[in-house]
Input
Amino acid sequence: MRTILEVKRPYSSPSKFSMFWSPTQRSANLSRARLGLGTFGAGLLSFITLIAFASDSAAAATSINLGAATPYAVIAGSTITNTGSSVITGDLGLYPGTSITGFPPGTVTGTTDAADTASSGAQTSATSAYGIAASATPATTVAAGTLGGGTTLSPGVYNSGSSLSLTGTLTLNGGGDANAVFIFQAGSTLTTASSSSVVLSGGAQPCNVFWKVGSSATLGTTTSFVGTILALTSATLNTGAKVNGRVFAQTGAVTLNGNTISVPTCSAATTTTTSSTGTTTTTTSSTGTTTTTHPTTTTTTKKPVTKPGTTTTLATGPTIIPVGAPATGEGGTARTASPLLGLVGLGALGVGVGAASIAVRTRRRRS
Output
């Protein structure tokens, strides 16, 4: 008799195998995959939007305190030389040099200090301001180092690793923020073409515009310039150039030729103080100091001081061309980030969380 042995193979469930590949199961798997991709996409959108929101805030330029240099229209390191009837509205300072010539015929409405304690302090503050302007970040690169030509810029830091040149008209738009700050960084020289100009609009103020120059600044004939020039070496103003701001040179000379330089005066800011009782007091002053008092709290805030002889001129039309900066020299404060980006980021984050919650509930019901 022949014996036939039956070999049993390991058991596998055909029903489960067929179910895995069934159209119903395949559709469920695709649905889960779509939910997973949706969750990932929403999360990625949230991350990108929040990063953009943070970047927008970081890109805002912050103020530069000019300290003891605030009342000075001109500060030089070696000499100050003038030709013609230059008009300086503000103080004139020279340190460590001692030679100031050409006044008269030039006139200075403030004090003239040379190689003394006052001029030394002013030069020290100017040098400190130069360092702050040089290190301001993040910066937008200026293509080919060329400004003007009808260009309009928003507040921020603008950098050229080599020279900066201005041709035609450059408009600085504050976007409705009187504290908007503009900082320009030139790795070497700053030059302007004849009849070029810097124009302010959208509430921008000259006290909040700073030009860090890695070597020397040269303003062309009849240039109309705005802001504080912080030159490492020297500054030369050609015939008829006007500066609504300041001209500082650390180590070299400032050379003038029938120019007008005015220490700027910006509009007074408004200070709002909320007391512990919920009462809010708002005080605005342009005379120097604003004090808000509560039974248990006193807040004192410095305010801009307008020097005698300093005026503010507003041009009629859509653009503002003021003359002046706050005597505090503090420039402005960082602008706030766009609230729209924050709302979009929070909305995307909510979508991501909702999608993840749906995916989890769906999977639990089908398991």
